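Hypothesis: this fold can be encoded by more than one sequence.
Test: take the C-alpha coordinates below, design a sequence, compare later.
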Protein backbone atom coordinates (compact mmCIF):
# COMPACT_ATOMS: atom_id res chain seq x y z
CA UNK A 1 0.00 0.00 0.00
CA UNK A 2 1.22 3.47 -0.84
CA UNK A 3 0.60 6.19 1.76
CA UNK A 4 -0.20 9.75 0.75
CA UNK A 5 2.71 11.82 2.05
CA UNK A 6 2.60 15.58 2.58
CA UNK A 7 5.82 17.37 3.54
CA UNK A 8 6.22 20.50 5.67
CA UNK A 9 9.62 22.17 5.41
CA UNK A 10 10.97 24.31 8.26
CA UNK A 11 13.61 26.60 6.80
CA UNK A 12 14.88 27.75 10.22
CA UNK A 13 16.09 24.23 11.11
CA UNK A 14 16.13 22.57 7.65
CA UNK A 15 13.69 19.98 9.04
CA UNK A 16 11.03 18.18 7.06
CA UNK A 17 7.93 17.01 8.94
CA UNK A 18 5.49 14.67 7.25
CA UNK A 19 1.81 13.84 7.39
CA UNK A 20 1.44 10.21 6.29
CA UNK A 21 -2.10 9.25 5.36
CA UNK A 22 -3.81 5.91 4.84
CA UNK A 23 -5.08 6.12 1.22
CA UNK A 24 -8.14 4.03 2.15
CA UNK A 25 -9.43 6.27 4.97
CA UNK A 26 -8.80 9.29 7.13
CA UNK A 27 -6.14 7.94 9.50
CA UNK A 28 -2.74 9.61 9.47
CA UNK A 29 0.53 9.93 11.34
CA UNK A 30 2.71 13.00 11.86
CA UNK A 31 6.44 12.33 11.60
CA UNK A 32 9.04 14.62 13.26
CA UNK A 33 7.06 17.79 13.92
CA UNK A 34 8.75 21.09 14.83
CA UNK A 35 8.07 23.54 17.67
CA UNK A 36 9.66 26.84 16.65
CA UNK A 37 12.11 28.21 19.19
CA UNK A 38 13.97 31.51 19.19
CA UNK A 39 17.05 30.97 21.34
CA UNK A 40 17.87 34.67 21.71
CA UNK A 41 14.56 35.43 23.40
CA UNK A 42 13.81 31.97 24.82
CA UNK A 43 10.39 32.09 23.13
CA UNK A 44 8.51 29.22 21.53
CA UNK A 45 6.13 29.62 18.60
CA UNK A 46 3.65 27.14 17.17
CA UNK A 47 3.63 28.47 13.59
CA UNK A 48 5.10 25.30 12.05
CA UNK A 49 2.94 22.94 14.10
CA UNK A 50 -0.17 25.03 13.41
CA UNK A 51 0.38 24.54 9.66
CA UNK A 52 0.24 20.77 10.21
CA UNK A 53 -2.81 21.07 12.48
CA UNK A 54 -4.61 23.20 9.86
CA UNK A 55 -3.80 20.63 7.16
CA UNK A 56 -5.14 17.78 9.30
CA UNK A 57 -8.35 19.69 10.08
CA UNK A 58 -8.86 20.88 6.49
CA UNK A 59 -8.67 17.30 5.23
CA UNK A 60 -10.71 15.80 8.10
CA UNK A 61 -7.87 13.49 9.09
CA UNK A 62 -7.52 11.57 12.32
CA UNK A 63 -4.06 11.56 13.86
CA UNK A 64 -3.26 8.11 15.22
CA UNK A 65 0.48 8.49 15.71
CA UNK A 66 3.05 11.18 16.39
CA UNK A 67 6.24 9.44 15.36
CA UNK A 68 9.70 10.64 16.34
CA UNK A 69 12.64 9.23 14.40
CA UNK A 70 14.96 10.11 17.31
CA UNK A 71 15.78 12.72 19.96
CA UNK A 72 16.56 15.61 17.64
CA UNK A 73 19.43 17.93 18.48
CA UNK A 74 18.54 20.73 16.08
CA UNK A 75 14.87 21.46 16.71
CA UNK A 76 12.25 21.03 19.41
CA UNK A 77 9.49 18.48 18.84
CA UNK A 78 5.90 19.74 18.69
CA UNK A 79 4.47 16.26 19.33
CA UNK A 80 2.84 17.07 22.71
CA UNK A 81 1.33 20.30 21.34
CA UNK A 82 -0.15 18.50 18.32
CA UNK A 83 -1.31 15.67 20.58
CA UNK A 84 -3.15 18.13 22.78
CA UNK A 85 -4.89 19.62 19.73
CA UNK A 86 -5.54 16.47 17.70
CA UNK A 87 -4.83 13.35 19.77
CA UNK A 88 -2.59 10.46 18.71
CA UNK A 89 0.13 8.50 20.47
CA UNK A 90 3.75 9.65 20.66
CA UNK A 91 6.21 6.92 19.63
CA UNK A 92 10.01 6.70 19.61
CA UNK A 93 12.70 4.00 19.74
CA UNK A 94 13.06 2.01 22.97
CA UNK A 95 16.77 2.88 23.15
CA UNK A 96 15.57 6.35 24.18
CA UNK A 97 16.46 5.12 27.67
CA UNK A 98 20.16 5.25 26.72
CA UNK A 99 19.77 8.79 25.37
CA UNK A 100 17.87 9.85 28.49
CA UNK A 101 20.59 8.41 30.68
CA UNK A 102 23.36 10.20 28.77
CA UNK A 103 21.68 13.60 28.70
CA UNK A 104 20.08 13.25 32.10
CA UNK A 105 23.68 13.30 33.35
CA UNK A 106 24.85 16.10 31.02
CA UNK A 107 22.00 18.33 32.27
CA UNK A 108 22.22 17.06 35.87
CA UNK A 109 18.50 16.33 35.92
CA UNK A 110 18.36 14.44 39.20
CA UNK A 111 16.10 11.56 40.13
CA UNK A 112 12.81 13.25 39.21
CA UNK A 113 13.74 12.89 35.54
CA UNK A 114 12.67 9.35 34.62
CA UNK A 115 15.07 7.58 32.25
CA UNK A 116 12.72 4.74 31.34
CA UNK A 117 11.02 6.27 28.29
CA UNK A 118 7.77 6.65 30.25
CA UNK A 119 7.24 10.17 28.86
CA UNK A 120 6.32 8.53 25.53
CA UNK A 121 3.15 6.55 24.71
CA UNK A 122 4.95 3.83 22.73
CA UNK A 123 8.52 2.56 22.62
CA UNK A 124 9.36 0.70 19.41
CA UNK A 125 12.08 -1.84 18.85
CA UNK A 126 13.45 -3.60 15.75
CA UNK A 127 10.74 -5.55 13.86
CA UNK A 128 7.82 -4.03 15.74
CA UNK A 129 4.84 -3.09 13.60
CA UNK A 130 1.93 -0.69 14.02
CA UNK A 131 -1.02 0.53 11.98
CA UNK A 132 -2.23 3.85 10.64
CA UNK A 133 -5.79 2.89 9.69
CA UNK A 134 -5.29 0.03 7.20
CA UNK A 135 -1.66 0.99 6.56
CA UNK A 136 1.02 -1.10 8.17
CA UNK A 137 4.19 0.43 9.55
CA UNK A 138 7.33 -1.57 10.29
CA UNK A 139 10.15 -0.46 12.53
CA UNK A 140 13.83 -0.69 11.67
CA UNK A 141 16.30 0.19 14.42
CA UNK A 142 18.87 2.33 12.59
CA UNK A 143 21.32 3.70 15.20
CA UNK A 144 24.57 5.52 14.51
CA UNK A 145 23.51 9.18 14.48
CA UNK A 146 22.05 8.44 17.93
CA UNK A 147 21.54 5.10 19.73
CA UNK A 148 17.73 5.31 19.49
CA UNK A 149 17.28 6.27 15.81
CA UNK A 150 14.47 4.49 13.98
CA UNK A 151 13.39 4.21 10.37
CA UNK A 152 9.64 3.85 9.93
CA UNK A 153 8.75 1.82 6.85
CA UNK A 154 5.12 2.63 6.12
CA UNK A 155 3.73 0.86 3.04
CA UNK A 156 6.18 1.67 0.21
CA UNK A 157 7.66 4.70 2.02
CA UNK A 158 10.58 4.81 4.46
CA UNK A 159 10.96 7.73 6.86
CA UNK A 160 14.66 7.57 7.59
CA UNK A 161 15.08 10.53 9.98
CA UNK A 162 18.78 11.41 10.23
CA UNK A 163 20.48 8.42 8.65
CA UNK A 164 20.58 9.09 4.92
CA UNK A 165 20.03 12.54 3.46
CA UNK A 166 19.45 13.27 -0.23
CA UNK A 167 21.95 11.36 -2.42
CA UNK A 168 23.91 14.52 -3.29
CA UNK A 169 24.29 15.47 0.40
CA UNK A 170 25.08 12.07 1.91
CA UNK A 171 24.54 10.99 5.50
CA UNK A 172 24.02 12.25 9.05
CA UNK A 173 26.78 13.15 11.48
CA UNK A 174 27.79 10.58 14.08
CA UNK A 175 29.68 12.65 16.65
CA UNK A 176 26.96 13.30 19.25
CA UNK A 177 27.28 11.31 22.50
CA UNK A 178 26.38 7.69 21.73
CA UNK A 179 26.89 8.15 17.98
CA UNK A 180 29.06 5.85 15.85
CA UNK A 181 29.94 6.03 12.16
CA UNK A 182 30.50 2.28 11.99
CA UNK A 183 27.07 1.67 13.47
CA UNK A 184 25.48 4.15 11.06
CA UNK A 185 27.09 2.37 8.10
CA UNK A 186 25.50 -0.92 9.17
CA UNK A 187 22.12 0.75 9.77
CA UNK A 188 22.22 2.30 6.29
CA UNK A 189 22.80 -1.13 4.77
CA UNK A 190 19.47 -2.21 6.33
CA UNK A 191 17.71 0.68 4.61
CA UNK A 192 19.46 -0.04 1.31
CA UNK A 193 18.28 -3.67 1.54
CA UNK A 194 14.65 -2.51 1.09
CA UNK A 195 13.22 -2.84 -2.45
CA UNK A 196 14.82 -0.35 -4.90
CA UNK A 197 11.50 1.37 -5.59
CA UNK A 198 10.89 2.14 -1.89
CA UNK A 199 10.34 5.87 -1.50
CA UNK A 200 12.73 7.47 0.99
CA UNK A 201 11.73 10.62 2.88
CA UNK A 202 14.63 12.31 4.67
CA UNK A 203 14.51 14.25 7.95
CA UNK A 204 16.57 17.24 6.83
CA UNK A 205 17.77 18.94 3.69
CA UNK A 206 20.48 21.56 3.39
CA UNK A 207 20.56 21.71 -0.43
CA UNK A 208 23.91 20.56 -1.79
CA UNK A 209 26.60 22.16 -3.92
CA UNK A 210 25.05 22.82 -7.32
CA UNK A 211 21.44 22.38 -6.16
CA UNK A 212 19.28 25.49 -5.67
CA UNK A 213 16.10 23.92 -4.27
CA UNK A 214 15.32 21.96 -1.16
CA UNK A 215 14.46 18.31 -1.74
CA UNK A 216 13.41 15.46 0.54
CA UNK A 217 12.13 12.52 -1.51
CA UNK A 218 14.28 9.92 -3.20
CA UNK A 219 14.33 6.11 -3.51
CA UNK A 220 16.41 3.22 -2.25
CA UNK A 221 17.60 2.62 -5.83
CA UNK A 222 18.80 6.22 -6.18
CA UNK A 223 20.56 6.09 -2.83
CA UNK A 224 22.38 2.88 -3.74
CA UNK A 225 23.54 4.32 -7.05
CA UNK A 226 24.20 7.94 -6.19
CA UNK A 227 24.64 8.64 -2.47
CA UNK A 228 27.92 10.52 -2.21
CA UNK A 229 28.82 8.84 1.10
CA UNK A 230 27.53 5.29 0.77
CA UNK A 231 26.50 4.82 -2.88
CA UNK A 232 28.19 2.50 -5.41
CA UNK A 233 29.02 0.00 -2.67
CA UNK A 234 31.42 2.20 -0.67
CA UNK A 235 33.14 0.12 2.00
CA UNK A 236 32.62 0.51 5.75
CA UNK A 237 36.27 1.59 6.12
CA UNK A 238 35.96 4.33 3.50
CA UNK A 239 32.73 5.56 5.06
CA UNK A 240 34.01 5.59 8.64
CA UNK A 241 37.18 7.49 7.67
CA UNK A 242 35.23 10.08 5.67
CA UNK A 243 32.47 10.49 8.29
CA UNK A 244 34.80 10.87 11.28
CA UNK A 245 37.05 13.37 9.47
CA UNK A 246 34.10 15.42 8.38
CA UNK A 247 32.39 15.32 11.81
CA UNK A 248 35.53 16.73 13.44
CA UNK A 249 34.98 19.93 11.42
CA UNK A 250 31.28 20.46 12.27
CA UNK A 251 29.98 23.00 14.80
CA UNK A 252 27.23 21.99 17.25
CA UNK A 253 23.68 22.69 15.96
CA UNK A 254 22.38 26.08 17.11
CA UNK A 255 19.51 24.60 19.13
CA UNK A 256 21.21 21.50 20.55
CA UNK A 257 21.03 22.65 24.20
CA UNK A 258 17.30 23.42 24.34
CA UNK A 259 16.42 20.62 21.90
CA UNK A 260 17.94 17.81 23.95
CA UNK A 261 16.38 18.96 27.22
CA UNK A 262 12.93 19.16 25.66
CA UNK A 263 13.03 16.21 23.26
CA UNK A 264 14.31 13.73 25.83
CA UNK A 265 11.04 14.59 27.66
CA UNK A 266 8.99 13.71 24.56
CA UNK A 267 8.85 17.38 23.58
CA UNK A 268 7.76 18.70 26.96
CA UNK A 269 9.50 21.49 28.85
CA UNK A 270 11.20 20.74 32.18
CA UNK A 271 8.87 21.09 35.20
CA UNK A 272 7.97 24.66 36.17
CA UNK A 273 9.38 26.13 39.39
CA UNK A 274 7.14 27.12 42.31
CA UNK A 275 6.36 30.42 40.58
CA UNK A 276 5.17 28.53 37.51
CA UNK A 277 8.19 29.62 35.44
CA UNK A 278 10.07 27.28 33.13
CA UNK A 279 13.84 27.33 32.66
CA UNK A 280 16.29 25.50 30.42
CA UNK A 281 19.89 24.95 31.47
CA UNK A 282 23.13 25.69 29.65
CA UNK A 283 25.80 23.17 30.70
CA UNK A 284 29.20 24.85 30.47
CA UNK A 285 32.04 22.97 28.73
CA UNK A 286 30.06 19.72 28.65
CA UNK A 287 29.07 19.28 25.00
FE1 LIG B 1 19.14 14.46 14.41
Amino acid sequence: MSPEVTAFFDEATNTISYVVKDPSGSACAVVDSVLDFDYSSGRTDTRSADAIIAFVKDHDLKVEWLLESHVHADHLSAAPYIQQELGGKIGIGDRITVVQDTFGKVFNEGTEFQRDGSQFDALFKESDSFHIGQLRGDVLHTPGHTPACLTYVIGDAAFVGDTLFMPDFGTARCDFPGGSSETLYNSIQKILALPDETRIFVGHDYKAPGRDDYAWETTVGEQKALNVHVGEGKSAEEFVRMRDERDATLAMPKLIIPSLQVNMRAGRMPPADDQGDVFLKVPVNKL
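The mean pLDDT is 97. The first strand starts at residue 4 and ends at 10.
Hypothesis status: open.
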